[in-house]
Write the structure tokens for this entry.
Amino acid sequence: MSETRKIVRQVLVIGALSVLLAAAVHFPLVKRFARGEFRETFLSPTEYPGIRLITIQEAEDLWAAGEAVVFDARLERLFRESHVPRARNLPATESKLKIPPDVLELQRERTLVVYCEGGDCQSSLALAKSLHDEGFEDIRVMTGGWEEWEKAGLPQEKGDDQE
């Protein structure tokens, strides 16, 4: 019995030391988190009930069926290089994005799919939040973004043709 207690105690000490070491190594990141710098990167289900994250496969299914309006939140230059066919470019470069009037004319129940570069890109979340604030009820953020769409070999369109 005492051998079991000793092992448990050692595991707890190792765990506590691991947490302390990780906090010390990442102290600048921990400080930024404590200041609330990453709040805009999180989606609160109560604050944004109409936004949800979807996979590349789910986005492709919605796109292929023509069931959604797709928005590319990347810079116009990147959009012109290549984008999801029929996607509209709506760069989310400002903290409070101004949604164009033609977008505001869409039915609020319409499914919208939003994507950006992928990886650490936060533009799609910023755009999704702006669309939500304008009353849109069904906004899907494509995780993996353009990077994953392209990697999967899915259809692409070049230029600035927009629906």
